[in-house]
Amino acid sequence: MGKVLKIIVGEYQGDDIKMYINEDLIDQIKERADIVDIISSYLTLNRSGSNLVGLCPFHNEKTPSFTVSSSKQFFHCFGCGESGDSITFIMKKENLDFKEAVEFLADKLGIELDGKEVDTKEIEEKRRLYEINRQAGRYFHELLLKNNTSLDYLKRRGMELSEIKRFGIGFAPDEWGNLYKFLKSKGYVSGEIEKIGLINKKKGNNGYYDRFRNRIMFPIIDRNNQIIGFGGRVIDETMPKYLNSKESLIFNKGNNLYGLNLVKKYSNKKNILLVEGYMDVIALFAKGINYAVASLGTALSPNQAKLLKRYGEEIYIAYDSDLAGTKATLRAIDIMSIEGVKPKIVQLPKGMDPDDYIQNKGKIRFERLLKEALSPIDYKIILNKEKFNINNFEEKILFTKEISKVIKDLKSPIEEDVYIEKISQETGITKEAIEKEVRGNYYNNFNNKKENTKIEKPNRENINSRIQSAHIKAEIDLIKLMIIDKEYFYIIRDKILEESFSNLACRKIYNIIKTKYENTDILSIDDLIKEALNIGVNENIIKELKKDSLEYKPTNIEKVIDDLTNTLILNNLEEKRKKTIKAIKELEEDAQKMELDRVHFKELCIELTNLNKEIKSIRYE
């Protein structure tokens, strides 16, 4: 078997050695080699609309016809026809071959090419896995065209034969070994078919069975038109709705977008519409919306956000209008923001997804929704209006505080000012008060010391102190609610554990209340305080409890309890997160310990991921 340099996809032949350039490495270089920066080092570019133009470096001209698109990371000369990406430009300008151009850019960007030789086994394995998926895709597709039940099901869902063929949709029969036998007959071995997730081992390692059965099969095709996996949808609804290929050497769902291969082929690539599911993409394409992609599950990944940025100028999000879709939209907004993308959010009627809407309302109505799509901040304002009743005095304050946090994240002072004015008009709260809420101490410092242009960073200890005091206040407020009404006690008890009270004094008082409610329906605040003092509860906590305890009767009690208990739960999760990060760092800093305890390290990483998910899910409730 030959050897290859570990640079490594498309292949390069030279010096009697077959070399490959790795796809991940190429993507990394393209991500970091901003085409505007690369080309600007060779010629002067001037802004023209969303693109930049300059005199072509590949032919003589007096009028600029050489165009560079920052969003698409692509150049094109309308004079001589030369076009390509940053690697192509370096190949042409520096007269280099592909491998040399990659090395040139890698050196410029500080990306290390290790130069180690590796076996070609992985390259060959990838080729065979792609081929297995191609054969399986053809097998499923041919079965669908012969299966009237499946065809009728898809037609009832509004799918025409042209779309079935365009997307290569297939059918996995309700048989346990047909695909396995078919692929074995083509010369593929059990191990590689299992590795790609098309078959599973039987219990006791006694043979194999087909993993996808009685499902409509959607091939997942990457941007290079290779089938990398499948999504299978049940017809009879007796099993989980979707079953997807497991991740493999060629499939990582976080690095791909369903339908991107067709967007590249058919659309003008100006707009990209992000949806949740396969059926959404297909239904939209069928009605002429040929720029939809799906994120292969609702959680958008950073790499998927990068793909959206690369292939589209204007990104729209049209996730389902249920609670899960709303949470996913908020997460997608945050992830896109990190990548410098400001999406527009399409608001679908409650209980509808894009597939439902375009089937029932048609293309014109759907395009109207696109025109009415909201900016991220307007979307968050609408969500909070649904959450709070701004005609209620207390909820109006809570609404304004929540929106102030959103406004604080805006990078433009002009945008800040516009939205402060907007919220002031909607709530009747003065603009000055909202400015103070948004800008906090910074605003006060700025007004008091206008001559100072530098604003000092807030003291970390003060920040931690404020966070801690806010958490203690939540614990005290929960205690107050439990004192007022036994029913409130039961609601709170069902939501949190005793350990959720991080303050020892509050925990002691909670236990007193729990014991007393076992024998009585009404608590005496005086008796409670007396007993608390007898067991050494901090007097400051007692003073806080005595302060307007009897009058503490907020409106919308269920929401108030939810918010307070979530504050405690978040605090506990954050503490666990800190300890987990500390444990991970300790292992990372001790190579010998890491080598001995790799399993524990992996468990910690999984635990950190799960904690982050829990924290995000509570914050976006």
TrEMBL record:
Residues in Toprim domain copies: 270-353
Alphabetical list of CDD domains matching this protein: TOPRIM_DnaG_primases
Coiled-coil ranges per UniProt: 570-604
A Pfam entry, by short name: DnaB_bind
Cofactor binding description: Binds 1 zinc ion per monomer.
GO-annotated biological processes: DNA replication, synthesis of primer
Molecular function in Gene Ontology: ATP binding; DNA binding; DNA helicase activity; DNA-directed RNA polymerase activity; zinc ion binding
Cofactor annotation: Zn(2+)
Zn-finger segments (CHC2-type): 56-80
Database matches in InterPro entries: DNA_heli_DnaB-like_N_sf, DNA_helicase_N/primase_C, DNA_primase_core_N_sf, DNA_primase_DnaB-bd, DNA_primase_DnaG, DNA_primase_Znf_CHC2, DnaG_bac, DNAG_N
Keyword Cytoplasm listed: no
Gene Ontology CC, one term: DNA-directed RNA polymerase complex
Reactions the enzyme catalyzes: ssDNA + n NTP = ssDNA/pppN(pN)n-1 hybrid + (n-1) diphosphate
Signal peptide as annotated in the record: none
Keywords for this protein: Coiled coil, DNA replication, DNA-binding, DNA-directed RNA polymerase, Magnesium, Metal-binding, Nucleotidyltransferase, Primosome, Transcription, Transferase, Zinc, Zinc-finger
Assigned EC number: 2.7.7.101
Family named by the database record: Belongs to the DnaG primase family.
Record comment regarding domains: Contains an N-terminal zinc-binding domain, a central core domain that contains the primase activity, and a C-terminal DnaB-binding domain.
Known function: RNA polymerase that catalyzes the synthesis of short RNA molecules used as primers for DNA polymerase during DNA replication.
Cross-referenced HAMAP family: DNA_primase_DnaG
Name of the protein in its database record: DNA primase
Taxonomic source organism: Tissierella creatinophila DSM 6911
Lineage, broadest ranks: Bacteria, Bacillati, Bacillota, Tissierellia, Tissierellales
